[in-house]
Write a structure and sequence with these properties.
Blueprint: E1 5-12, H1 26-41, E2 50-54, H2 58-61, H3 70-74, E3 83-86, H4 92-106, E4 111-118, H5 125-132, H6 148-163, H7 168-182, E5 209-211, E6 214-215, E7 225-232, H8 234-244, E8 252-261, H9 266-272, H10 281-294, E9 304-307, H11 312-322, H12 331-335, H13 352-355, H14 363-375, E10 389-396, E11 401-408
Parallel strand pairs: 2-3, 2-4, 9-10
Antiparallel strand pairs: 1-7, 1-8, 4-7, 5-6, 8-11, 10-11
Helix pairs in contact: 4-14, 7-11
């Protein structure tokens, strides 16, 4: 077991907000999120010793790089605090969390700020989608398509069909559940969206095909958004809790983490796992690493999951890689209700990327913050009753970068 990293507070922006329509940009969402996280944690800017920013596409969507320095620009109280930016496609903010934890564990700093942020809605949807292609291996994926990521995860659906069999009804149900969960999340992008009885079917009008294997409702919602976290060492957290008159056990903590990488190209990953039980063995390794570092035996110690459903197929993949079902049999957990609200292993009660939204560089931090809220009984209408441990799974590209955290609390 490793020493825990405490989560003193956090803040998520409203993922339905299009900042550019109000004359604002990524700097404004970062300012709001950092101010909100500091207020949530009840700490002063002078207590922040280091800053880590997760962002994937700032150069492409806003022409803005060097986002580590943006934090001090928009919050002068943090002027002089060391800061750096991390990029790992959709796992960028999780990498920022890992770097912050490493500094805390090394004894360099006791209180570290993590900021995840991304802006997309300042651009036409097709242009924003093209920019995301840079998370694949440009010119080498051998995928003929208009939209890279719907096509790539449509190929994953095809790989599952080839290896194990796949019924699209189960993908439609995953999408339906995540949109339903999002209705209870006041910060979810799709909380007011309306659907009809055909929306979660293979009806070509109500749920059109985007790329082979992927329909409209299968797709996570690319959006604007930011999420910030204040992380601390056990010693700092204990002193902080005493100042506030709180028992230390009331604070959420990251007790375990896993991090694995694979190559960029999707078809290479398929080829390397031929003959393996799972399509992405390294995803399972990251999940198991988090259990080991948290000192728990496995999934039986976890009360809920926030997983990366950039497409419904990604959540379907996560189900068997977490071990909820035997390999290739994720449909069982969909059919028996285990992943639903009130089920044995609720997944994405936030709405996930499909329902809550997917501001790429913020998603990993948002998952950790939602997990922290679950284990401190502050998730309001999204609460998993009695949740003590919640695990995240965040992926970048076609599972090229994979990060998982175990977040726990004591009631």
């Amino acid at each position: 077991m490793s020493l825990p990293t405490y989560i003193l507070g956090g803040h998520q922006s409203d993922f339905a907000r299009a900042w550019s329509r109000q004359g604002q940009d990524i700097s404004d969402m970062m300012r709001e999120s950092v101010q909100g996280a500091l207020a949530s944690a009840r700490i002063e800017p002078a207590q922040v010793a280091s800053i880590h920013v997760g962002n994937a596409f700032g150069e492409l969507t806003r022409g803005q790089a060097h986002l580590g320095a943006m934090v001090a620009q928009v919050l002068p109280e943090l002027w002089g605090v060391p800061a750096m930016r991390h990029e790992g496609a959709c796992a960028s903010a999780s990498l920022a969390v890992l770097a912050a934890m490493a500094e805390i564990e090394a004894g360099r700093y006791d209180c570290v700020l993590v900021v995840g942020a991304e802006e997309f809605k300042n651009l036409p949807g097709d242009v924003a989608a093209q920019h995301q292609n840079s998370a694949a291996w440009q010119g080498h994926e051998d995928i003929a398509c208009r939209f890279m990521w719907p096509a790539a995860f449509g190929l994953l659906a095809g790989e599952y069909e080839r290896r194990y069999g796949l019924d699209r009804r189960h993908l439609n149900r995953i999408a339906e559940l995540n949109y339903a969960h999002a209705r209870l999340n006041p910060l979810a992008q799709t909380r007011h969206w309306q659907f009809n009885e055909r929306s979660f079917s293979d009806d070509d009008e109500a749920n059109p095909l985007i790329e082979p294997g992927t329909r409209r409702q299968d797709c996570g919602q690319i959006t604007d958004g930011a999420c910030s976290l204040v992380l601390a060492s056990p010693a700092f957290a204990a002193a902080h809790a005493r100042r506030l008159g709180l028992p230390l056990e009331r604070l959420a903590r990251i007790s375990g983490w896993g991090h694995r990488n694979a190559g960029l190209r999707l078809r290479t990953k398929f080829a390397r796992s031929q003959g393996e039980a799972l399509v992405f063995p390294h995803v399972r390794e990251a999940i198991a690493q988090a259990w080991q570092r948290a000192g728990v035996s496995g999934l039986d110690a976890i009360d809920g999951i926030e997983t990366h459903d950039c497409f419904s197929m990604t959540e379907y993949m996560a189900i068997d890689h977490f071990g909820l079902t035997p390999p290739g049999q994720s449909w069982q957990a969909v059919e028996d209700g285990r992943i639903e609200r009130g089920g044995a292993m609720p997944i994405n009660l936030s709405g996930g990327l499909i329902g809550c939204g997917h501001p790429v560089g913020a998603t990993g931090a948002r998952m950790v913050w939602d997990a922290a809220r679950q284990v401190t009984d502050t998730a309001d209408a999204c609460q998993i009753e009695g949740a003590r441990r919640v695990q995240t799974l965040n992926i970048g590209g076609s599972c090229a970068t994979v990060v998982s955290f175990v977040v726990e609390g004591q009631r």
